[in-house]
C-alpha cells in the first residue's frame, strides 16, 4: 500500500498480512503512518498504490460503509458513542438497517440473546454517561461485534483505561481470537500490551515497513530499536532539590459546574508551590477536566478564589499573559487549536499580538510567525511537512507536541497539563517528561493531571487524588502509598 498527501509520502510500499484469528500489533513512532494505513483499510482514505486482499480475494474499500459491509470495524482512542443514549439505543442506532419505528421489546430481547453469546456484558439500560471508562470501551467493542464486524482495528484502545481495565479487555479479545471468532489489528505504543496479548507485530517508521515478526521471537528492545532507528532517547534531567519554596498557585474552595449543569468541582482546595510538580490522580470524570478548564479560562468559576503568586487571578488572556499561566488540555486538537489554521499560526496564539510577532499590536508579521514556528518545530521535533500545513494534518502525537511547544517554550510560572503524554510514542514520552522535569527544576509550578498513575508517581513531588470534585488524598510523593491512592481514586 502507498499513500501520498501532496508531495509527502505518508505510506511507502507497506505490506502487512494478518492471519485469520490472530492478534497483530502495529507499532511505530508518532507520525510513522499507522493511522494512515488503517484509514486506508477503513475507506476513509484511498490508497494510491497497492491492494487489499480479504480472505484471499482482492477488495476495494471506497468508504467506511463499504468497510463495514466487509465486516471490518474500528475502535478509536476516544469514545464515539452518544453519552445521553443508553447502551441499547447506541447499539440499535448504529445499525445500517435501523427501522423508522423501533420495536424496543423485540430489540431488547435480541440484545439479551446477543449479550449471552458475548464474553463480557455491559449494562445496556443506563445512559452511557453513567458508565465507567472501561465499561464504555467494552461497549465500543460490543458495538462492533453487534454489527457483525469480524476484523477489528483498534487504535490505541486502552489509552483511557486503567491498567487493570486494559488487561481485562485485551484478555477477552485475545480469547476471542484464540477461538477464531475475531481477528485483531491493534495500534499501540505500549510494549506490555504487545508482549502480553499479541501474536505478531509490524513496525513502521517514516511511512515504511521496517520490521515484522512473531512477538515470541522479538524482544522489547528489538521492537524499540526498529521504531526509532538510531535516534537516542534523551536522558532525563534529575530532580533538583529546591527545599521549601513559596506557593505559586492557591486554589481556595473552588466550585464549577459540568456540562450537565451539575457541580463537577466542589469545595476544592489545593496549593502548588514554585518548582514543584503536583500530580493530580483520579478516575476520569471526577472533575479533573472541569478543573483544568476553569484554570484555563474555558469554563466559568461558580465560586471560590484563585491566587497566583499571592495575587488574585482571573483566568483571562490578559492575566494569563502577565502571570505567565499556561495549559495543555486533553484532546488538544479539539480543545487547544484551530484545526484548519496552519501549524505556524497555531504556534503563534500566545504571542501574535505582541512584538516580535506583531508590529504596533496590529500588524502581524508573517515572517516572524514563520521564523518562530521553524524554531519551535526544530526544537520540539514536531513532524510537519511545513509550518504552513494545517495543524489537523499532523499525526495525533505531533499535534500534542506542537501545543506543548507553544505552552512551555517561554517563561512559564504556572503550567496546568492534562495527560501530557497521551498517544505519544515511548521516545516522545521520555522527551516530554524530561521537559516537564526541566521546567520544574527552573521553578515552574506544575499541576499535572493524569490518568496514568505511573506517570504521576514518576514525576510528582506531591500527589493528590481528586474524587467527586474535590481532593480526597494529599501526600508527599516519597510517602505516597499506591493502595491508599487507589482507594481514594475509587472514592473510598
Ligand atoms: N490528511 C492529511 N494530510 C496531510 N498529511 C497527513 C494527513 N494525514 C496524515 N498526514 C501525515 O502523514 C504522516 C503519518 O501520519 P499518521 O497519522 O498516519 O501517523 P501515526 O503513525 O498514526 O502517528 P501517531 O502515533 O502520532 O498517531 C504524518 O507526517 C502526518 O502529518
From TrEMBL:
The keyword Nucleotide-binding applies. InterPro entries: AAA+_ATPase, ABC_carbohydrate_import_ATPase, ABC_transporter-like_ATP-bd, ABC_transporter-like_CS, P-loop_NTPase. The keyword ATP-binding applies. It comes from the Bacteria. Keywords: ATP-binding, Nucleotide-binding. Residues 1-231, 249-492 form the ABC transporter domain. GO terms for molecular function: ATP binding; ATP hydrolysis activity. SUPFAM superfamilies: P-loop containing nucleoside triphosphate hydrolases. This is ABC transporter ATP-binding protein. It comes from Elstera cyanobacteriorum. The lineage of its organism: Bacteria, Pseudomonadati, Pseudomonadota, Alphaproteobacteria, Rhodospirillales.
Amino acid at each position: 500500500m502507498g499513500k501520498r498527501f501532496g508531495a509527502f509520502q505518508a505510506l511507502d510500499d507497506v505490506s502487512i498480512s494478518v492471519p485469520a484469528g490472530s492478534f497483530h500489533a502495529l507499532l511505530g513512532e508518532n507520525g510513522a503512518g499507522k493511522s494512515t494505513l488503517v484509514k486506508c483499510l477503513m475507506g476513509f482514505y484511498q490508497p494510491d498504490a497497492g491492494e487489499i486482499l480479504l480472505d484471499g480475494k482482492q477488495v476495494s474499500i471506497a468508504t467506511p460503509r463499504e468497510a463495514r459491509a466487509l465486516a471490518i470495524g474500528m475502535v478509536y482512542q476516544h469514545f464515539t458513542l452518544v453519552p445521553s443514549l443508553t447502551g441499547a439505543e447506541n447499539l440499535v442506532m448504529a445499525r445500517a438497517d435501523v427501522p423508522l419505528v423501533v420495536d424496543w421489546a423485540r430489540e431488547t430481547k435480541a440484545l439479551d440473546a446477543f449479550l449471552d453469546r458475548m464474553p463480557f456484558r455491559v449494562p445496556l439500560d443506563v445512559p452511557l454517561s453513567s458508565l465507567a471508562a472501561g465499561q464504555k470501551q467494552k461497549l465500543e467493542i460490543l458495538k462492533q461485534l453487534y454489527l457483525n464486524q469480524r476484523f477489528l482495528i483498534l487504535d490505541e484502545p486502552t489509552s483511557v483505561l486503567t491498567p487493570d481495565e486494559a488487561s481485562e479487555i485485551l484478555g477477552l479479545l485475545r480469547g476471542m481470537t484464540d477461538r477464531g471468532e475475531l481477528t485483531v489489528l491493534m495500534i499501540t505504543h505500549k510494549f506490555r500490551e504487545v508482549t502480553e496479548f499479541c501474536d505478531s507485530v509490524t513496525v513502521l517508521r517514516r511511512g515504511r515497513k521496517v520490521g515484522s515478526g512473531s512477538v515470541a521471537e522479538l524482544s522489547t528492545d528489538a521492537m524499540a530499536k526498529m521504531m526509532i532507528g538510531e535516534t537516542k532517547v534523551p536522558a532525563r534531567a534529575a530532580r533538583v532539590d529546591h527545599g521549601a519554596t513559596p506557593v505559586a498557585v492557591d486554589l481556595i474552595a473552588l466550585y464549577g459546574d459540568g456540562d450537565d449543569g451539575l457541580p463537577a468541582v466542589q469545595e476544592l482546595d489545593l496549593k502548588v508551590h514554585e518548582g514543584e510538580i503536583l500530580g493530580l490522580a483520579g478516575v476520569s470524570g471526577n472533575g479533573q477536566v472541569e478543573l483544568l478548564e476553569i484554570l484555563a479560562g474555558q469554563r466559568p468559576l461558580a465560586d471560590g478564589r484563585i491566587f497566583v503568586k499571592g495575587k488574585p487571578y482571573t483566568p483571562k488572556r490578559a492575566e494569563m499573559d502577565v502571570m505567565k499561566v499556561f495549559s495543555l488540555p486533553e484532546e488538544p486538537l479539539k480543545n487547544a487549536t484551530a484545526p484548519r489554521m496552519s501549524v505556524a499560526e497555531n504556534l503563534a496564539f500566545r504571542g501574535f499580538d505582541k512584538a516580535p510577532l506583531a508590529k504596533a499590536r496590529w500588524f502581524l508579521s508573517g515572517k516572524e510567525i514563520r521564523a518562530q514556528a521553524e524554531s519551535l518545530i526544530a526544537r520540539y521535533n514536531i513532524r510537519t511537512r511545513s509550518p504552513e500545513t494545517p495543524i489537523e494534518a499532523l499525526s495525533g502525537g505531533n499535534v500534542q507536541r506542537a501545543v506543548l511547544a507553544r505552552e512551555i517554550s517561554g517563561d512559564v510560572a504556572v503550567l496546568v497539563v492534562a495527560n501530557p503524554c497521551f498517544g505519544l510514542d515511548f521516545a516522545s514520552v521520555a522527551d516530554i517528561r524530561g521537559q516537564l522535569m526541566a521546567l520544574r527544576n527552573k521553578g515552574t509550578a506544575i499541576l499535572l493531571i493524569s490518568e496514568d498513575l505511573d506517570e504521576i508517581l514518576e514525576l510528582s513531588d506531591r500527589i493528590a487524588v481528586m474524587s467527586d470534585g474535590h481532593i480526597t488524598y494529599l501526600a508527599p510523593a516519597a510517602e505516597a502509598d499506591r493502595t491508599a491512592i487507589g482507594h481514594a481514586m475509587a472514592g473510598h
